[in-house]
Every structure is written in C-alpha cells, then in structure tokens.
Amino acid sequence: MDECKPLHSGADLNECVDACAGRLGGVSGALEYVRKMQGGGGDVIDLLTASLEARHELRGAGLAEASDPDWVRELLYLDLAIDEVARRAVERAGEANYDLEGQMRLAGVIMESLALSLPSSNEDVVLALMEWKRVEEARRAGDLQWALRAKAVVDRVRMVGRCKLTLLNTR
After folding, report:
1. What's the domain range around 130?
2. pLDDT at 157 over 70
3. Residue 170, class by beta-carbon neighbours within 10 Å (0-12 exposed, 13-18 middle, 19+ buried)?
4. Contact by Cβ (8 Å): 125, 160
5. Contact 132/153 with Cβ under 8 angstroms?
6. Which of 114, 146, 158, 160 is the 20 to 30 Å CA partner of 121?
7. What is the pTM of this model?
8. Which of 68, 97, 126 is the last residue of a domain?
9. Per 3-state DSSP, what percentage of the chain is helix, strand, and coil (rounded to 5)?
C-alpha cells in the first residue's frame, strides 16, 4: 500500500467508484454516502463509519485476496481514495464539538481505520481496538477505572504509530 500512495495519492473517489462499480454489483449505501460527503458535509463520525463499512466491503470484494491483480489494483485505488476522505474527516473532527460518548466513538472509528490501513502489521492496533470496545462498555457500566484503561489503549496505539514512523524513516 505504501508503494501505491505516491503513485495514486490524488485518487479521485468518483473515478475509482465508477471504475469498480460494475464488478462490485453497484454502489453500496455506505460508499455512496462517502462519495456524497467527501467535500466536507455531514457528521464526521457518520462519514468515518460509512468509510469503514465501505472499506470492509472492498475486502469482501477481493481486496483481501490477490487472485486477480488488475481487480486488486482497482480496489486498492478505491481503498486509498476512501481512506483519503476519512483522513480529511479526521482532520475536520477537531472542529466538531462532541460530548464524551462522541469522542469515544470517534477514537474507536479512527483506530479501526488505522487497523485497515496497516493490513500486514495491524495486530497491536486490532488488540487495542478490542480493548477500546471493552473500555467503552466499562465506562457505560460505571467502572471507575475506564479512564486509566482508555489511556493505556491510547498509549499502545501511540507506540504503534511511533514504531511505524521510525520504520518508515529508516527505509
């Protein structure tokens, strides 16, 4: 995926959707929502959730299996375009005024997006995401330790990010 980003960093979502729509059996509701809201409209969490759903659909459509290289390339370009929309939405999230529940949901969808973006080395992020879901449940249940557990998860994800950046910088 790192090799594709420089080649296709300006992936046009509409072109990518059009290129894949036939073999995908049409455009799903999630993908259509991402396409419609790519310019910055709508709620950030809804857009990130739709982008996650669309990216999961791509894995089911063949991105997870490299049996047809041309199709996988088209799906990769579409995945990159969706990821770019999600990245811009995350940047915009700083302007949103979410309550604690919204901030927790936002952190969870960002972690899941990160896990999808690191497919070959995402074990730590996936484990952190699983723990994050437990932290959300613990907070709703009134567990007084939820904040400490949340900090531990965030620290783990931060460490993964730092390790990834170090690895990229040493290449």
Report:
1. 99-171
2. yes
3. exposed
4. yes
5. yes
6. 146
7. 0.83
8. 97
9. 75, 0, 25
